[in-house]
Design goal:
By secondary structure, this protein is α+β, with helices and mostly antiparallel strands. It contains 1 helix and 9 strands, in the order αβββββββββ. Strands 1, 2, 3, 4, 5, 6, 7, 8 and 9 form a 9-stranded mixed beta sheet that branches. The radius of gyration is 26 Å and the shape is elongated. The C terminus is likely disordered.
Amino acid sequence: MEALVRGRVAASLVLAASVILGATGCTLLSPQDTVGMQETHNGVSGEVGQISVRNALLLTGDGDEANLVVTLVNTDTKSHRVTIKTDTDAGPVSSIVTVEPASPLKIGGQPGSRRMQFSGFTTPAGSEHKVYFQYGDQTGVQLSLPVLTTQLPEYSTLTPTPAPVSAAATN
C-alpha cells in the first residue's frame, strides 16, 4: 500500500513538472524582449562621437525639394558644430548647426521649427538617400535616410516650401 502511495505522489510530481514545463517551456530559454528594445520610428539613427543622430528622414512633396527631419542630441558638456552634407542633382549641399550640451536640436519636425531643405532633390519617395553627419575631428557617419512623402497624414504639415533655402544656413 505504501508503494502505491509513493507511486501516486511520484506520478503527481511528474505530472506537475510536465505541466509547468509545458506551460513555460517555449519561453524558458528564449531571450527576453526587454533586453533588445528598439525605438519605434520611421527614420534611422546613428552616433558621431558625443552626438546622437536620432530618427533622421527626408520628406518630399510634389516638387524637387526635400525637408530633413532629425533630432541631434549632444551628450558632451560642451557645444559642437555639426556639419550635415548630402549630394543632390543641384550639387553637393552642406549646412552647419550648433548643438548645445544636454539640449536636443530638432530640425524640420514641427511647423515653425528650424528647417533644412535641399533643392534639386529627385530621389523618389520610398527609396533611401545618403546624408553625412560629422563634427570636429570625429569620424563622421553616413546614414541612408528613408525618403517619405508628405502625403502621409503625420507628415502633411512638413511639406518643403516651394522656394527652399539651399541648406546653407548656419546656427
